[in-house]
Amino acid sequence: MSAASPPTAETRGGAPGALAGDPVGDATARDAAVAAVRASRARRTRRRLVLAGLLLAAALGFLVFKVLTSAIVYFKTASEAVASRAQLGNSTFQIEGLVVKGSVRSLGPDRIDFTIASGAARVRVENTGAPPQLFQPDVPVVLVGHFVGSGDRFASDQILVKHSNAYIAAHPGRVRGAGGKVVR
Question: What's the whole-model pTM score?
Answer without folding.
Answer: 0.52
